[in-house]
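Bug #77: duplicate submission created two jobs. Keeping one. Sequence:
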Amino acid sequence: MTNDPTPDETFATDVVRRLTAAGHTALFAGGCVRDLVLGKLPKDYDVATDARPEQVRDLFGRRRTLAVGESFGVIIVLPPRKSGAQQVEVATFRTEGPYLDGRRPEAVSFATPEEDASRRDFTINGMFYDPLAKQARDYVGGQRDIKRAVVRAIGDPHERMTEDKLRLLRAVRFAATLEFELEHETGEAIRRMAVDLTMVSAERIGEELKRMLADQHRRRAVLLLADTQLWPVIFPELRDLPRLEEQRWERMTAALALLETDRFEPALAIIAAEMFDAIDPASVRFPEHKPEGLDEVHDLCRRLRLSNEETDRVCWLAARLPSIAAFNRLSLPQKKRLLAHADAPLLLQTAEAVMAANSDDHEPIRLATEILARGEHELKPPPLLSGKDLIDLGLRPGPQFKAILDDVRDQQLAEEIATPEAALIEARYRIDAIE
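Kept job's structure:
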């Protein structure tokens, strides 16, 4: 358990204290208890209580509560202003009816803490903690499984997974990020039901996958996806990679292990790059080069319901990885244009992991890092020549207009010219050549 309470823990404890003072049972519940038992700092706190939703609202006041899931017994309690704390979700102890849609129960009934624990997903998430008595309440063996480093479904694994098919993926995420093992029966249930993940919305799958790939144990997550047969469901384009392309699979997973970032996009870009045809770095022509398969990467991102910004970043990183491998062959203007991109630092992190996994020469990374360090004033200086300058020189807008601007810009980035006067001379020379 943590020693010095955070604003979140302090506020959540105050919620428990007020409920208890009003004659109710109230306990921390779920993931925050798991994290406290593991000695980790919870990201948020949930409270479970025998108080009914209307009692929670009456106790804390309508202005301090939100009835976001009142039919399921869930009320949000808002923290005091300037407390620095997050809101707390307060849920009434409950049992649940059938999950006919594979996501939500058709009905709920208010119940005891023991009954509430038995309807949760995994034993490590089924514990309660009394912050006033500083005592855990464990009706499902969660503490035992944490000691054993095991992710185990509560009760019948098949029944738990059938209730909410996303639990197939959540089990893998917990096993990967906590460095736990999947309990045998739980793992077997996931393998038997893997195809049922297709019944889960793409957005929910995408959110779970993003959390896996943003974690430092992303390689373990990917290996578990393959082991549980979930990999081909999420990545049908690469369904045979773990079985039939052993060397590619090992290099890809090694790159994921070497990746040092808390962003998910670089990891997804490394996976997505496997959709491309084999690329000879010598053939790369930046920025015109578009690897075969880039459209499939874009489709993958859309299928996972990534935002436009996330999609653009994953596609750009995946497409530009070969440019770093071929960095020494690029001209100085090409290098600067590549590194002027806002995500260039992320690209170098990604490329470094890929090249290390392939035992490639690190000279391109060293050189790219050196050029990147020069800063925006060298990578993206204000243009020395504008379209207005060309019009003043008598050139009408047309096919040659952009070509001349690009040529002079290349000379500027190549450090062959450094003043507007020199740029005008070069432009005049090209206009004269046209005429």
